[in-house]
Amino acid sequence: IIIFNYLSQGIDLSGIEVIENDLLFIARARLEVENQAKRLLEQGVETQNPTQVGTALQVFHNLGTLKDTISNVVDGYCASLEENINNALDIKVLTQPSQTVTRGGPGRAVMPTPGNAAAFRAALWTNMEKLMDQICAACAQVQHLQKVLTKKRDPVSHVCFIEEIVKEGQSDILYTFWTAVTQTLSSQFQIATDSSVFLKQAFEGEYPKFLRLYNDLWKRLQQYSQNIQRNFNASGNTDLFAELQQMEEDTHDIFMQKKQDYDSEKALKDSLQPYEAAYLSKSLSRLFDPINLVFPPGGRNPPSTDELDSIIKTIASELNVAAVDPNLSLAVSKNVAKTIQLYGVKSEQLLSTQGDASQVIGPLTEGQRRNVAVVNSLYRLHQSVLKVVSSQSSFPAAAEQTIATALKTIYDLMGSAVQPLLNSVGDSVEAIIITMHQEDFSGSLSSSGKPDVPCSLYMKELQGFIARVMSDYFRHFECFDFVFDNTEAIAQRAIELFIRNASLLRPLGEGGKMRLAADFAQMELAVAPLCRRVSDLGKSYRLLRSFRPLLFQTSEHIANSPAVGDIIPFSIILQFLFTRSPPELKSPFQRAEWSIARYSQWLDDHPSEKDRLVLIRGALEAYVQSVRTRGGKEFAPVYPIMVQLLKKAMSTLQ
Length: 654
Description:
single chain; mainly alpha; 27 helices; elongated; COG5_helical
């Protein structure tokens, strides 16, 4: 047949009686060979037998019809799948009760009856599962066909069969097939859902189920790609098998290797895009609805525990359903983040910002009670969402971070809600501590050698105030860790202010030192209600403990203490040494003619140790000038010690 075709090419032999019968015989023989080769090819791709496929392809190559045959085979798979898609989405079949179709009137839409909606959806998803099986089977067969084409060579010319097709401009039949299938899916789904609201509702409402089917299909396609070489190796030691062993790995597998300008998985999932967008929109509505319901316009109270539980259950449900796919989990987590932010915005509108929200004189006001309730509500939301996220298995890190960022806004809002109250407490603590300067610490030591009272009046007031605010205001908050995180800062500030003001007391007698030492011990008891443990206050606690022994040490010992410059700032010690000097050696605030309160504010505004030391140096220089002006012969004994300590302090800043 092949030789005759070659010899008779371009020659009309019709009408020559001698060879007319031979022509008829050859035509019939060719047809028989083609039919047998087609059957062998069909059987080979169905059973994944590379030997049979290779033999059939060799026949078509010899007959000169390889390219047309491959095109027809691929077109046949595409047409078959298009028919499968249409059958799967046939609304008449999906909505028929049992086996009989009820005919509607002219122009009447076919729709499921209310009682049959569940049966309709069950039938639809059964069809979709079957469709995925059909797509997977067709892909496997085309992939197998391409694998053989890529490996098989003509034994005479040694030309690879895929090169014969390349000449015709079609090198990747799997890519061609997959592009056609994914485009058909997109177009047929669009047509079907445009013509049936029930199909549209099913695809949009149960999109995660749809996506799971696609993900399962994709995994099966990739699994087949991984197994195909092993299947070839198990097919027997034929001539084709020997060829396959010598050939390099297939580089045309679009299910394992992305092309530069083509993502085969994305091409598949593009057909779902309209349904994903609709699903995410409805998901956001489901998340927002319960929040809008429990925050009615003009409402003054945060949601109840039951109402908040309902919101959390909705969040958990949306995340659980989206867990079928990492990208869907991320998209839904963004909706959850918006939900958390909406809850925060609605809660913030309930907060009282009037003056009575920060008062610390009387019992809780109505505004303060509402603020407590709002903070407790925000805290319960925060903790509940954290619990939901932690219960998710294989939750994408990006999704977790998205929700964590939204939860931080809730935590920040809680902080903003209590900040006015914290500020009032801090201001009151400072106002009480500064009254120590109204008490007399200049007295000498009593005959008993002990202070007359356990502690000073200001310390009693401070202890009573802190105990009262913790009992009257902060004990109503459910978020104990959150409260302590904020009140511990007040405790640290209180110790800092106490040390600052204690170092400024002038004059300070021996009896005053004893009473001040007692105040140091009582200070630990005063700030205890503000923290979990006083020792948790870290640097502030060490400062309090380290300063107390210095009250009774000589100036030389104080200057050489290892705590100075390490735990206790140089500026604090230098301030304290001023109290041991004659009145002529004025403290920095006395030289500037400031009140204690103004000096304390200056120190707050100038946290830099260098700025503080420069101010102290100015006071010492002014003292030197005053001594020289009056013609003095010597300086106070503490002065050289202070100068040496100042030099040491300045050198550490270099």
